[in-house]
Amino acid sequence: MTIYLPIAELPVAIFTILAMGLAVGFISGMFGVGGGFLMTPLLIFTGVPPAVAVASVSPYMAASSLSGALSYWRKGLVDTTLAWVLLSGGLVGTVSGVLLFLWLRSIGQVDLAIRLSYMLLLGAIGLLMLVESVRAILRARSGAPPSVRRPGTRPAFMRLPLKMRFRRSRIYISALPVIVIGYVIGLLGAVLGVGGGFILVPALIYLLRVPTQTSVGTSLVLTLVTMAAATVLHAVANGTVDAVLALVMMIGGTVGAQFGARTGQTLKAENLRLLLGLLVLSVALRVGAELVTAPGDTFAVTMVETVR
């Protein structure tokens, strides 16, 4: 059974989109990631224009982050002060990303920019995760203790001015790096349709020393707000949000996440990171292969109607 996507302007098999939503939702629940960095390339592989894929994944990401953010909020695991400072940079980054997206569309390079950015971003992250997880597995098998950074070591940006005390996270640092991190996440979300949790959570944990559960809860709040803002801005400025496509993805993703969460609880942390690294790297290679593979039709004919 096929449905017609009014914004993407093409018919798609509804069960294919549902299956993709189920698969990405399963992966999201199993690995604890948003899934936007996988859903957007999958939509592009099925023929959805990259501009529509990026914009339509934004409401999917906002909806998938809502339940998680509410759950962490009720448990008191959201640092509201940290979230506000992140959002001050994240919303500016979202607006910048939408404007950049609009400019790339105006010069006809948005598809190339999205594919190239995905290849570089996912390739780097997948490779780093793969190396780190393999080292952790080998270390665990040899019985060696895990490597721990000395507690007294602090990066140079910790000495920047405008220091703030984030009581829930139990840290006292400059607000400047927090704003910059929020800006980068908002920019990536608007341009690539990714929630940024797979970048934000490690940044909060390893750079700012925020507790893990507080990092996840605060990251979900940032993803929820920036993706909701990106949805509205893309719909108004670019007109590329396909509500039908987003709704079908939400249904599949919600169901798949429940099964993925149960499966993820049975695997070791280092094995989960290894599988996720392989998955991210494979998607990056697939996107890169499309960039260098010659298309089936080397010529395109555009019909232009002359009005007299």
UniProtKB/TrEMBL annotation:
It is found in: Cell membrane; Membrane. The keyword Protease does not apply. The chain crosses the membrane at residues 12-35, 42-62, 82-104, 116-138, 171-204, 216-237, 243-260, 272-289. It comes from the Bacteria. The keyword Cell membrane applies. Its main location: membrane. Pfam families: TauE (PF01925). InterPro entries: TM_pro_TauE-like, TSUP/Inactive_protease-like. Keywords: Cell membrane, Membrane, Transmembrane, Transmembrane helix. It is a multi-pass membrane protein. Belongs to the 4-toluene sulfonate uptake permease (TSUP) (TC 2.A.102) family. This is Probable membrane transporter protein. It comes from Xanthobacter flavus.
